[in-house]
Amino acid sequence: MFRKSIYKTPEQLRQMVAPGLATAASLEAARMAIVPGATTLSVNAAAEAALAERRARSNFKQVPGYRHTICASVNEDVVHGIPNDRVLQPGDIVSIDSGAEIGGWNGDSAFTVVLPDPTRPELVAERQRLSEVTEQSLWRGIARLARAKHLNEVGEAIQDYIESQGNYGILTDYIGHGIGRSMHEEPPVYNYRVHRRGPEVKPGLVVAIEPMVVVGSTDTFVRDDEWTVATVDGLSAAHWEHSVAVHKAGIWVLTAPDGGESALKPLGVRPVPIS
Using CA atoms, how far apart are residues 16 and 105, in angstroms rounded to an integer? Predict the structure, then answer.
């Protein structure tokens, strides 16, 4: 049983639109800043400036002990990487996670990008494929949410897709979550099949779906900075995430500028704006 209702009112859903769009803007600014020679701190600065333009606050900075706007995880780092003076190199795979808070409501989203490197085409292709599989598993999870009766169907869709694409590993120690007044709320959102059905999917449910996928072993460790999660075998990882609202007319991807339309249309789902 959940300690309080996990379902938002129609007015609360409307208030979550702005922080979702601010989160998307911060990630777009970060994406533009990811080039060879940039540091993850400079990427952080770009995301922070984008939030300031929208009069949004970084909800990452509100996590006790964390001082940055984004998490920047490179190569074998999976999630929670701290921005620093590390210089990005051609061929790097970079995952950026960001969130925004406006009026007490939160957004949370992440993407992965691979920097071109003509001298290592096989590595770039492997990493690009990893990112694409992870992203598409996210969209298949979102598409299932649009049709699901219970939340844990999302994890089934994500796992089924990833397993159909090759020998990839899905992290099980880190999962998605509800989102609203806090960045991390109940219920848990699994990226894999579990025995429990989970809560009913009905209007008012808002969740952050975020598969984390690796090319090798799913064994991870936390670095000495006490934040960064990295693969034990040193192989590449990818992370994609969106915050998604279920409302009376359908679903809407809060952290996608088009509500997820371009990605969901090929999957037979038409998102509907929150009114």
Answer: 6
C-alpha distances out from residue 158 to 70, 85, 186, 190, 239, Å: 25, 34, 20, 9, 13
Q: Which residues contact 167 (CB under 8 A, 6 or more apart)?
A: none
pLDDT of residue 1: 47
Could you tell me the residue range of the domain that residue 92 belongs to?
A: 10-265
Tell me if 182 is assigned to some domain: yes
Q: Cβ-count burial of 81 within 10 angstroms (0-12 exposed, 13-18 middle, 19+ buried)?
A: buried
Contacts of 44 (CB under 8 A, 6+ apart): 30, 68, 69, 70, 72, 83
Name the maximum alpha-carbon separation found in the chain: 54
pLDDT in tens, 219-252: 999 999 999 999 999 999 999 999 999 999 999 9
Q: Report pTM.
A: 0.97
